[in-house]
């Protein structure tokens, strides 16, 4: 008996431990939301309202506007997740634009952590829900889209960043990231004081090669123009998900003298931006990062000089618009600078991002304004002749006067030889 | 000094160990706790030392009722126990083991090793023990471990010292000096409880004897009034009969060991030129205190250990050697496995279809056969071996080994930890086997056993056979001298 | 300007310190637990929760020091959970550990989603201030947590070897039956050891969150907990060798990153990425394979 | 004996219940309706014939890795390198499927076995190091996992990267090497049947063969094994090889039956799922089947949960974690039951 009673004490202890752990973990999570010493009950209510706010913004999209002349479209947009203030949020924005301008109904689906073996299952689940168009913002799903396009010939698909050929019901939208990367490469080279620039990339896969080669091309363009020799540091760190690795790679570059580092590495790239911030803070040297996909200047305002923006929202919107206007066509659409698919970030882009941040309650309006001002201060500190030169290159690309190579498995080795 | 009133103990598995024991311990006495295996001596003392909690009953120390939640509580009352199975951390040094749990401290945190060493050396001077304090316990011979164990308990300034079968690992000579130490301790005012099943020892050293049988106190007697016959009757109801051995004239040599040199785990020679032979129809006993190379010798013979010099010749009809290891629970059986699977251990390759799949039916038949032939008490053959009693486990091991059909049987300490009935059964079985023409190598540390059943006897000391003769020719004194290394023939 | 650059060797070592520190901290903490006989393979999960908690706390208060403290506290709490289950309730330590890993990965992503609207990553927070060391004309900033790691490793070595706490802790891990007989509270000591282990792992998490990184990212522990487990074995359960093994891994990882930068043109990066793992296996198999774990490791102790 | 099994099963069930209960609390706190969400979880795992087959597909690799893990744990080795073996198995299966020209059917079988062989070879390294030199298998497992993953990256991104593919994957295997579907309309391939058979065979191996007998003896008590002349080293080596073979088959089924090429990091942790399944199944090979079904339901159902209810599927990880933690303490329930009884 005695033993059992003692052991019971242990049981109670354990239950207590579990409960405490749960409460503390939850408590810490909530305590963070309102800054300051509020009680837990208060924090819970605040969080709930916040969650509602987010849900509201999403469900609000289902309200049908009646004033559009075009056909009503029910669209599904498949993104990794919401709230990265980047690629996925911009795709979301494209959907929102379709709601606003076209009166479309848009639902969003999040594929983060769906195992690859189950992509088909995931997509097919969505197909069965019945949509006029399914916009897949995940190049890894290309083959599943192709398969489903055959199986459901009446279902229209659009896929971004991937090419699904020979299907009349699949629109493949690709971006000419090499053009955008060339612009930031040129910008970096003009601005570099040390004569060394860097780029950190995620996985060594064909889509990433366009960033690498475009960037290097831009650097060579300036080197040829000015005759100045610039050293390029570049590295594939092998992961999109380890910011500490990204930070380490970038720090190594900074320590080798790089003063501007571009990244194309997803969340690993966040580490690159953090590295630049940290390095500046700790050594007093001014170094900068260049963001990618979205206008990432806000992430460390004052340390990200520009971003190579992929206008995913344009692509998503275009897919829905084509369906609404009845002009949907299968095949490949390549969006370059000319088509508004890629570009160097503009102040408006940053403003839109800040708008999303405020809407998602990630920042207060004041904070967003402050960040915006810091970003603009940095931007304005760039000599205008540099901007002019970059814009000149941009014009040349739009007019087709220069062409930036698109690396393939056959040419990548040779291109790396040529551009270092 | 202390009393235990109406102590009951039922283990969680349902075994009833004690059924209401009353025990008084007087200040400054040497109390003998006598009884067979399973009488409940150790359980009773584990309760007194705080290691076990009684199911029912009260302990009073100096008239005050106490409840021990752990051995630490008992220690705080000055009660300490030296266990039969050493409670030493093998990977620690002797000194670390001795101070563990009551370390002298320099400040709040640091251990005062120099003071510890001084204190222990003082104790060694008092007791006459000599142990290398900086040696790892794992590398010590059994006798040394025993000393370390006792030093450890004494180090704790105890008033009541409980000793559980302390002499089992000592040579007769060592036992003598050990008893002197105990007497000295008693003169110093330490109360001692001496657990033993050896009547002779109880008579020699104690002041008063309490005899336990099957969880009850059978009787309490002053040592001066006790006689061996009286005690034996109290301990066991069945009178043990000496085993009658039919005459067999040994002929063919089945096992020949010549000038064998075997290294121990640490790379030093522990068997140093052992030579002997075992013939058909005889039990050849190798007697010695543990740690004199028996383990390595046997392992070399059965092929588990390489030997450097000499040779081992086995002229058996079977490639499989029948071997009953010293510890059935760690070497003889897989306790978690059912009886039937244990019954084919080592011969499992014979119970197959083709070469791969085990023929379950054949295994069942085999297991049932062993169970009935050797009257192994088990609920059924699918019961895990851990639920069998020690005696039945040993029967299972022996049965399995005999089913190998080898002419040669090697048994090591076959009756250790068994009750009287099982011990008698096993010994009788061995004698029967011998009479039927098997060659048996008996390695044992039990003098009585060796004398009782072996035909010829070799005494092993320090890796050598120091004396060999017909078993009946040995006197106890000669054996003691040989085992203690004081004599080499 | 180029003069200010660090020499590649210094840069490499600097990088190795950062890459090795979280592994070393976790390994030292887990070593303490393992010395007492408790294996907590959940350190991977504790690390990620520690990182999350530290970032959240820093986000809430603006002070990364508080972040570190919260990370340590949460780590200790999870250590307490694991310790209680695996001592007082005789839990299978491996299963509990696996559970904590899944729980940690999951709860931090869910929590991140609750606070920052999505499960992926948090906003940037400030990091703890570093010591700046001048190397020639350039300067290197070194985290105070690095020094703390070294101190903790030496302290652990010292405590295990010279103090009664260490002696008892080791005895509990080697032979709990003996320790119990001697009146040492096996359960409590193991629980404390696991709590300390959890706390150090939480500190390692905080290092990832508010020292090295400055933000939380889901799964950011990235297998470092397992590397720490390996480091303990490589180090043969000796604190200082374990420390060495951890930084050795950090060194090879930094070397890999450096080499990939230098020779990216000639050799595919995936081959470089294998270097630290291959090096560890080789070094281990050649030099440290004789390691012997505490005898009672992963074995719940029961009385009677 | 039967009581023990019942107790094990009851423990697992209680653990699962507690896991879902804690998950429900967290869901509730996060502002979701737990009943609705669990409903959509079950619904999307078993809602119709089609999704049920998808769930079975998700089960397929877990059964292989689960059987592999069970073998390891039965022999008391703590080897957690199934993830790496799975990747290497996928490589060898791919190489045979892509490079060799063989008649249909035979090609698939040979490629499949080649996958197992790859895993086996990858098990040979730690197995040899362990058996010959006593090198701790946990260390080699952790390291070899990463080496295998990076090597597979190299295969998918360099050595056999399909230049036409937009995602990082290798060339497709030849159509002759594809493991056929059970019927053309359903996604389930014959690999599933093989997985079930392999799991049952593992059980048979462990309980009805000489090798299995020796594995269990070595795992339960190596001293006895030594005395019984069972070579511990070669038993270990065998375990590494068989277990590696099984884990390799897991990779092969994914390549030959699902992707038809090696896709960059295609495994979301099937090796770890296998370890989890073995732990939930308490190392009973036959219990691997329900355990992996359960994990597959979580994996597969979580997708429906996301699509249908909008819950991040990390919630599934939380639930899985709590289930494991509560599965580890059977003692707690026994004590609790006794306490309740005593109170009455």
From TrEMBL, chain A:
<keyword id="KW-0732">Signal</keyword>
<protein>
    <recommendedName>
        <fullName>ABC transporter substrate-binding protein PnrA-like domain-containing protein</fullName>
    </recommendedName>
</protein>
<dbReference type="Pfam" id="PF02608">
    <property type="entry name" value="Bmp"/>
</dbReference>
<keyword id="KW-0472">Membrane</keyword>
<feature type="transmembrane region" description="Helical">
    <location>
        <begin position="12"/>
        <end position="33"/>
    </location>
</feature>
<dbReference type="GO" id="GO:0005886">
    <property type="term" value="C:plasma membrane"/>
</dbReference>
<keyword id="KW-0449">Lipoprotein</keyword>
<keyword id="KW-0812">Transmembrane</keyword>
<dbReference type="InterPro" id="IPR050957">
    <property type="entry name" value="BMP_lipoprotein"/>
</dbReference>
<dbReference type="InterPro" id="IPR003760">
    <property type="entry name" value="PnrA-like"/>
</dbReference>
<keyword id="KW-1003">Cell membrane</keyword>
<feature type="domain" description="ABC transporter substrate-binding protein PnrA-like">
    <location>
        <begin position="81"/>
        <end position="349"/>
    </location>
</feature>
<comment type="similarity">
    <text>Belongs to the BMP lipoprotein family.</text>
</comment>
<dbReference type="InterPro" id="IPR028082">
    <property type="entry name" value="Peripla_BP_I"/>
</dbReference>
<keyword id="KW-1133">Transmembrane helix</keyword>
From TrEMBL, chain C:
<dbReference type="InterPro" id="IPR001851">
    <property type="entry name" value="ABC_transp_permease"/>
</dbReference>
<dbReference type="Pfam" id="PF02653">
    <property type="entry name" value="BPD_transp_2"/>
</dbReference>
<dbReference type="GO" id="GO:0005886">
    <property type="term" value="C:plasma membrane"/>
</dbReference>
<feature type="transmembrane region" description="Helical">
    <location>
        <begin position="94"/>
        <end position="118"/>
    </location>
</feature>
<feature type="transmembrane region" description="Helical">
    <location>
        <begin position="270"/>
        <end position="288"/>
    </location>
</feature>
<dbReference type="GO" id="GO:0022857">
    <property type="term" value="F:transmembrane transporter activity"/>
</dbReference>
<protein>
    <recommendedName>
        <fullName>ABC transporter permease</fullName>
    </recommendedName>
</protein>
<keyword id="KW-0472">Membrane</keyword>
<keyword id="KW-1003">Cell membrane</keyword>
<feature type="transmembrane region" description="Helical">
    <location>
        <begin position="37"/>
        <end position="59"/>
    </location>
</feature>
<keyword id="KW-1133">Transmembrane helix</keyword>
<keyword id="KW-0812">Transmembrane</keyword>
<feature type="transmembrane region" description="Helical">
    <location>
        <begin position="65"/>
        <end position="82"/>
    </location>
</feature>
<feature type="transmembrane region" description="Helical">
    <location>
        <begin position="138"/>
        <end position="160"/>
    </location>
</feature>
Automatic annotation (TrEMBL), chain D:
<feature type="transmembrane region" description="Helical">
    <location>
        <begin position="188"/>
        <end position="207"/>
    </location>
</feature>
<feature type="transmembrane region" description="Helical">
    <location>
        <begin position="236"/>
        <end position="256"/>
    </location>
</feature>
<dbReference type="Pfam" id="PF02653">
    <property type="entry name" value="BPD_transp_2"/>
</dbReference>
<dbReference type="InterPro" id="IPR001851">
    <property type="entry name" value="ABC_transp_permease"/>
</dbReference>
<feature type="transmembrane region" description="Helical">
    <location>
        <begin position="108"/>
        <end position="129"/>
    </location>
</feature>
<feature type="transmembrane region" description="Helical">
    <location>
        <begin position="50"/>
        <end position="73"/>
    </location>
</feature>
<dbReference type="GO" id="GO:0005886">
    <property type="term" value="C:plasma membrane"/>
</dbReference>
<feature type="transmembrane region" description="Helical">
    <location>
        <begin position="315"/>
        <end position="336"/>
    </location>
</feature>
<feature type="transmembrane region" description="Helical">
    <location>
        <begin position="12"/>
        <end position="30"/>
    </location>
</feature>
<feature type="transmembrane region" description="Helical">
    <location>
        <begin position="141"/>
        <end position="160"/>
    </location>
</feature>
<keyword id="KW-0472">Membrane</keyword>
<protein>
    <recommendedName>
        <fullName>ABC transporter permease</fullName>
    </recommendedName>
</protein>
<dbReference type="GO" id="GO:0022857">
    <property type="term" value="F:transmembrane transporter activity"/>
</dbReference>
<feature type="transmembrane region" description="Helical">
    <location>
        <begin position="85"/>
        <end position="102"/>
    </location>
</feature>
<keyword id="KW-1003">Cell membrane</keyword>
């Amino acid at each position: 008996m005695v033993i059992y009673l003692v052991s019971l004490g242990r049981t109670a202890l354990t239950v207590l431990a579990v409960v405490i752990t749960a409460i503390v973990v939850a408590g810490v999570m909530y305590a963070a939301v309102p800054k300051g010493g509020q009680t837990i009950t208060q924090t819970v209510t605040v969080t709930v309202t916040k969650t509602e706010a987010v849900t509201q913004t999403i469900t609000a999209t289902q309200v049908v506007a009646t004033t559009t002349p075009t056909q009503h479209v029910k669209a599904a947009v498949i993104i990794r997740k919401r709230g990265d203030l980047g690629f996925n949020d911009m795709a979301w924005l494209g959907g929102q634009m379709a709601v606003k301008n076209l009166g479309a109904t848009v639902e969003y689906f999040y594929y983060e952590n769906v195992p690859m073996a189950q992509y088909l299952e995931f997509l097919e689940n969505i197909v069965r829900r019945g949509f006029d168009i399914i916009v897949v913002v995940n190049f890894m799903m290309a083959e599943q889209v192709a398969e489903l396009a055959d199986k459901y010939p009446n279902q229209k698909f659009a896929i971004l960043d991937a090419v699904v050929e020979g299907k009349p019901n699949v629109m493949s939208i690709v971006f000419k990231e090499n053009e955008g990367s060339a612009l930031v490469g040129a910008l970096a080279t003009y601005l570099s004081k040390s004569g060394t620039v860097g780029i950190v990339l995620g996985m060594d896969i064909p889509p990433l090669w366009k960033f690498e080669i475009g960037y290097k091309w831009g650097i060579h363009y300036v080197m040829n123009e000015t005759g100045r020799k610039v050293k390029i540091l570049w590295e594939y760190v092998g992961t999109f998900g380890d910011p500490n690795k990204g930070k380490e790679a970038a720090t190594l570059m900074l320590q080798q003298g790089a003063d501007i580092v571009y990244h194309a590495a997803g969340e690993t790239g966040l580490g690159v931006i953090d590295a630049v911030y940290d390095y500046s803070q700790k050594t007093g040297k001014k170094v900068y990062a260049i963001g990618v996909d979205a206008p990432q200047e806000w992430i460390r305002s004052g340390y990200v000089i520009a971003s190579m923006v992929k206008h995913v929202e344009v692509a998503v919107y275009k897919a829905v618009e084509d369906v609404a206007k009845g002009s949907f066509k299968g095949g490949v659409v390549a969006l370059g600078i000319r088509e508004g698919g890629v570009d160097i970030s503009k102040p408006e882009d940053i403003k839109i991002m800040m708008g999303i941040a405020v809407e998602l309650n990630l920042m207060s309006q004041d904070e967003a304004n402050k960040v915006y001002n810091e970003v603009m201060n940095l931007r304005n500190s760039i000599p205008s002749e540099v901007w002019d030169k970059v814009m000149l290159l941009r014009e040349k690309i739009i007019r087709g006067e220069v062409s930036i190579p698109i690396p393939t498995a056959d040419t990548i080795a040779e291109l790396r030889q040529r551009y270092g | 000094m202390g009393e235990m009133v109406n102590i009951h103990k039922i283990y969680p598995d349902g075994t009833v160990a004690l059924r209401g024991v009353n025990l008084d311990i007087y200040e400054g006495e040497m109390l003998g706790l006598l009884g067979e295996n399973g009488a409940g001596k150790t359980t009773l003392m584990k309760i007194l030392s705080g290691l076990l909690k009684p199911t029912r009953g009260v302990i009073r120390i100096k008239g005050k009722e106490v409840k021990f939640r752990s051995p630490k509580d008992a220690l705080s009352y000055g009660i300490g126990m030296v266990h039969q199975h050493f409670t030493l951390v093998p990977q620690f040094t002797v000194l670390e083991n001795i101070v563990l749990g009551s370390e002298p401290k320099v400040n709040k945190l640091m251990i005062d090793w120099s003071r510890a060493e001084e204190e222990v050396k003082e104790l060694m001077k008092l007791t006459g023990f000599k142990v290398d304090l900086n040696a790892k316990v794992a590398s010590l011979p059994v006798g040394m471990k025993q000393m370390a164990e006792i030093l450890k308990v004494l180090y704790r300034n105890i008033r009541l010292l409980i000793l559980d079968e302390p002499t089992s690992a000592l040579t007769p000579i060592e036992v003598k000096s050990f008893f002197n130490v105990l007497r000295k301790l008693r003169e110093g005012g330490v109360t001692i409880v001496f657990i033993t099943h050896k009547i002779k020892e109880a008579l020699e050293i104690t002041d008063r004897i309490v005899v336990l049988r099957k969880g009850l106190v059978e009787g309490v007697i002053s040592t001066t009034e006790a006689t061996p016959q009286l005690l034996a009757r109290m301990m066991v109801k069945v009178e043990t009969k000496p085993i009658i051995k039919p005459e067999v004239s040994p002929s063919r040599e089945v096992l020949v060991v010549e000038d064998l040199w075997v290294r121990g785990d640490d790379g030093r020679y522990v068997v140093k030129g052992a030579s002997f032979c075992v013939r058909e129809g005889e039990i050849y006993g190798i007697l010695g205190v543990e740690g004199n190379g028996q383990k390595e010798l046997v392992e070399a013979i059965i092929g588990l250990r390489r030997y450097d010099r000499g040779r081992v010749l086995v002229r058996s009809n079977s490639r499989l050697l029948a071997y009953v290891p010293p510890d059935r629970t760690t070497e003889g059986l897989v306790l978690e496995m059912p009886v039937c699977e244990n019954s084919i251990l080592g011969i499992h390759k014979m119970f197959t279809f083709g070469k791969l799949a085990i023929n379950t039916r054949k295994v069942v038949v085999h297991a049932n056969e062993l169970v009935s032939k050797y009257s192994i008490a088990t609920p059924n053959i699918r019961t895990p071996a851990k639920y069998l009693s020690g005696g039945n486990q040993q029967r299972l091991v022996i049965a399995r080994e005999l089913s190998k059909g080898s002419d040669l049987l090697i048994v090591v300490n076959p009756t250790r930890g068994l009750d009287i009935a099982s011990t008698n059964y096993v010994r009788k079985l061995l004698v029967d086997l011998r009479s039927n023409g098997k060659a048996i190598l008996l390695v044992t540390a039990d003098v009585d056993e060796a004398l009782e059943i072996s035909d010829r006897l070799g005494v092993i000391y320090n890796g050598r056979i120091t004396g060999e003769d017909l078993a009946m020719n040995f006197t106890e004194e000669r054996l003691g001298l040989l085992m203690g290394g004081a004599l080499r023939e | 300007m180029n003069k200010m650059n660090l020499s590649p060797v210094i840069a490499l070592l600097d990088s190795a310190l950062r890459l090795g520190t979280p592994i070393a901290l976790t390994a030292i903490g887990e070593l303490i637990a393992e010395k007492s006989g408790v294996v907590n393979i959940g350190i991977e999960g504790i690390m990620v929760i520690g990182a999350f908690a530290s970032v959240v706390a820093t986000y809430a208060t603006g002070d990364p020091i508080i972040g570190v403290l919260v990370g340590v506290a949460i780590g200790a709490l999870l250590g307490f959970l694991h310790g209680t289950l695996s001592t007082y309730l005789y839990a299978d330590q491996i299963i509990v550990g696996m559970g904590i890993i899944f729980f940690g990965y999951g709860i931090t992503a869910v929590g991140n989603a609750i606070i920052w609207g999505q499960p992926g990553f948090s906003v940037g927070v400030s990091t703890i201030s570093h010591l700046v060391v001048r190397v020639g004309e350039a300067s290197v900033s070194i985290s105070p947590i690095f020094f703390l790691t070294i101190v903790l490793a030496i302290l652990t070595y010292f405590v295990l070897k010279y103090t009664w706490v260490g002696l008892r802790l080791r005895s509990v891990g080697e032979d709990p039956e003996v320790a119990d007989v001697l009146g040492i509270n096996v359960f409590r000591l193991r629980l404390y050891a696991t709590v300390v282990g959890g706390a150090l792992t939480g500190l390692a998490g905080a290092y990832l969150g508010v020292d090295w990184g400055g933000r939380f990212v889901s799964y950011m522990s990235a297998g470092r907990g397992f590397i720490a487990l390996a480091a303990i074995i490589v180090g043969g359960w000796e604190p200082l060798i374990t420390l060495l093994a951890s930084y050795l891994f950090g060194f090879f990882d930094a070397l890999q990153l450096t080499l990939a930068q230098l020779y990216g043109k000639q050799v595919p990066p995936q081959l470089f990425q294998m270097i630290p793992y291959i090096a560890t296996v080789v070094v281990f198999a050649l030099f440290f394979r004789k390691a012997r774990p505490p005898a009672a490791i992963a074995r719940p102790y029961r009385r009677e | 004996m039967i009581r023990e099994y019942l107790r094990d099963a009851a423990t697992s069930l209680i653990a699962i219940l507690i896991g879902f209960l804690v998950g429900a609390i967290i869901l509730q706190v996060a502002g979701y309706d737990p009943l609705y969400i669990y409903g959509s979880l079950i619904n999307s795992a078993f809602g119709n014939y089609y999704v049920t087959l998808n769930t079975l597909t998700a089960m397929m690799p877990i059964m292989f890795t689960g059987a592999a893990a069970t073998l390891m744990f039965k022999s008391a080795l703590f080897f957690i390198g199934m993830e790496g073996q799975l990747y290497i198995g996928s490589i060898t299966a791919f190489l045979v499927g892509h490079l060799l020209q063989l008649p249909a059917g035979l090609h698939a079988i040979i490629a499949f076995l080649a996958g197992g062989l790859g895993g086996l070879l990858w098990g040979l390294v730690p197995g040899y190091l362990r058996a010959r030199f006593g090198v701790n298998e946990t260390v080699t497992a952790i390291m070899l996992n990463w080496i295998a993953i990076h090597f597979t990256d190299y295969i998918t991104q360099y050595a056999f990267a399909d230049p036409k593919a937009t995602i990082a994957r290798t060339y497709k295997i030849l159509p002759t090497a594809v493991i056929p579907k059970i019927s053309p309309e359903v996604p389930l391939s014959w690999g599933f049947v093989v997985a079930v058979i392999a799991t049952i065979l593992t059980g048979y191996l462990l309980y009805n063969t000489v090798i299995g007998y020796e594995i269990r003896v070595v795992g339960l008590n190596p001293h006895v094994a030594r005395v019984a002349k069972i070579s511990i080293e070669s038993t270990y080596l065998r375990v590494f090889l068989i277990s590696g073979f099984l884990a390799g088959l897991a990779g092969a089924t994914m390549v030959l039956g699902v992707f038809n090429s090696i896709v960059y990091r295609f495994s979301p942790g099937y090796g770890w799922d296998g370890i989890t399944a073995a732990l939930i199944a308490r190392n009973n090979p036959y219990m691997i089947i329900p355990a992996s079904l359960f994990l597959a339901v979580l994996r597969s159902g979580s997708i429906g949960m996301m699509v249908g209810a909008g819950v991040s599927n990390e919630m599934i990880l939380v639930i899985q974690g709590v289930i494991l933690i509560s599965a580890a303490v059977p003692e707690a329930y026994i004590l609790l039951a006794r306490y309740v009884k005593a109170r009455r």
